[in-house]
Model the fold of this input.
Amino acid sequence: MEEIKNPGVNDVMNNAKTYIHDANSLAIIEKAANFATEHHAGQFRKSGEPYIIHLTNVAYLLTTLQVGPKTIAAGFLHDVIEDCGISHDELAQEFDEEIADLVEAVTKVGTLQYKGKEDPEYQAENHRKIFIAMAKDVRVILIKLCDRLHNMRTLEYQPEAAQKRIASETLDVYAPIAHRLGISSIKNELEDLCFYYLNNEEYHRIAQLVETKKTERDASVSRMIIEISEMLNENHLQFRIFGRSKHLYSIYNKMVKKHKRFDQILDLLAIRIVTQSELNCYEILGYIHAKYKPIPGRLKDYIAVPKTNMYQSLHTTIVGDDGKIFEVQIRTEEMDSIAENGVAAHWRYKEGKKYNAKEEQKEIEDKLSWFKNFATYSAEESNTSASEYMATLQHDVFEANVYVMTPKGRVIDLPNGATPVDLAYRVHTDIGHTCVGAVVNDTMVPLNTELQTGDVVEIKTRKGSGPSEDWLKFVKTNQAKNKIRAYLTKKETEKRSEKIEEGEKLLEDELRRRGFDPKEYTEKKKLENIYREFRVSNYTDFMYGISVKSINPTIVCEKLTNQKGRVSEDEALQHVLNREVERKASKSGLLIPGIASMKMSIAHCCQPVYGDDIVGFITKGEGVKVHRRDCVNVNAEGARLIDVQWAAEDPERTYDSDLVVESKDRNFLLTDIVTVVSQCKMTLETVNASINHDTLITTIKMTVRVRNKDALENLMANLRKVDAVLYVERDNH
Done:
């Protein structure tokens, strides 16, 4: 539909009447126009024009998108709350709740102040409000986009500083939104207008380059259009064909980002063919490739695999008979409409269909995979910092340009460098948490593999598993990073909470053993009096210290009761252990604070190595067995645990560690595993492999000798990179 330079209310109504025929619906629009005219009377823009001209332009732009009558009405009314002192309730009474809600939402977005780079947190908070409003009702952002477009068209009346500020915000926020919603008609114009105000010199330079050879290019395009038209007419195909000009900012972007000269941009000569059906699209592509030489690697089928903003088209680049290079786009009428107006084209107002915001939003989420993720993220991350929220959207949504598919055909967009773990978290948080492997294009790959456009990715999960801290080293999306950190923090908090409860129980048990009532002595106020003696500042740290044996519950009891209880065999041992004498390390590189000599040995069940968090278990007759602190065999043995430490690291000292490797079965798997161990300069003590013939999963158990935890983790990380390996873990016997 051809736009009018400066439309009036009648132009809005005439445009609306082309697709809205219900008299009541049209009456709502007219009423809103009259209401806005009345209440904005006497208000003027910086151009000197009456303010109603801006509102009429916004409403007119909305009719070109063929939105519903209430959205157009809200376009007329979107400034009455802010500029005219009209309340939400007054609007609801005058019109209805739906229109009032729309106007209020647009007002909240419109009153945000862009402060640029000097105040990023404030700015991020403002932008978050915009996106959350969009997640609730996409109509809000459609109104705001039209509002912003007209403001950009009239930006010349603003001071230079305001021009740059508004243009920066538009390029950073509004143009990407228009792109993600598939509204290229608005996105392209916004980008070119921003380009004009932000980099005027480059704008004119590229405009001059485009203009210099315009006549020659137009002639070449015209000849190609005639040739293709004759060929398609001979084959009795219905079509529209026309030349397509590239907008200036897009040319500039390609020149900057891809380091190309102006004459290297292949799609400056562009032709678009619009036909009746998908079948016709492929048929036309066949005729064109039969007549002209296609450039290898430039064929893109966005019909079979649409972009995440619903864009569909066939793209091919061909060499004409005169040696000129052309980009040809082939699509249906519906595809062409969606390519121009995106989400607005797909959800055009349909007469007789009652608008339901929730249903409409759900439909949008179903069609726009990124929007569903975005809406979910907006809801889940409402408590995150605004900067973190915006960084996630900017990186994960706006900059996403890698498109992969699930086995069921769902297309998911990811940023460059994204991995299967990023994909898993994009699908669902639980999928991310339980991810243990990935199959890409029918091949098992390591979890840190960078995904490419067109990859078909299947995520393997296992109940009970959780994310590793190592994942933070390779995941690319902020969403995945935030989810992993949240999980690890929660687990650490849970672990600490368990330790605190364990400390409380240890203290209570010790008091009961000595014949005292725990209730009488474990009030927090009484305990506060002895915190300082143990150099802790609060209750939780105190109980945590008791649980990990850095604070002796026996001594705590004595201080609380001012009495020494009966000395048991275990207590006697504790007293021995608590004597302040010179530290002496065992042959295993272990020592007990305050103990000159004590028989100590590494526990075989969990096999701690230098650098592990460890704890000692007092045995009967075998001295102290040293376990990893998370070993299941000592979790319930609070009374017999003792604090132990690693002595200074000895480069000559090594430790045995058992590993379990699970992998998809393949040839030479064991050879590759052994090679990795050798490359990491480890000694392989034993290795054993078995295969489950039902699942075709190979389990490899091995014993390696390592110097410390870092070396062990490095080995495990490299083993995970081996082709077909699903997971690598330390073996707990």
Residues 655-730 form a domain with the Alpha-Beta Plaits fold (CATH 3.30.70.260).
